[in-house]
Amino acid sequence: MEQLTVTVDGPLDFDTSEELLETVGKTLAEFREEPLLALDLGGLTLCDSMGLSALLAIRRRTTAEGVRLVLLRRPRLLDRLLELTGTAEYLIGTPGGEDEHSEP
């Protein structure tokens, strides 16, 4: 299984979420196999409702295409948002799932 990695640095918000969706779309379109898509979120500084919407859209797309999505180096700010919105299990599996955190 091939791993594709997309790195997110800075805020994921109204101004940047469309760019992430386009980048992920282009990345997935380049590969015909069923890869593992890793979003490296170690540089994420903010995630608002549009950012969360983008992550949910990416999960829907990868699921539909048979691609495994992993969120690497999730900052605590994202984990709190996922817990508050009830989307943690959908995006990362079980709470504290297999994806890596960047902060202890």
From TrEMBL:
Protein species of origin: Actinacidiphila acidipaludis
PROSITE patterns noted in UniProt: STAS
The name this protein goes by in its record: STAS domain-containing protein
Matches recorded under InterPro entries: STAS_dom, STAS_dom_sf
Coiled-coil portions: none
Residues in STAS domain copies: 1-104
SUPFAM superfamilies: SpoIIaa-like
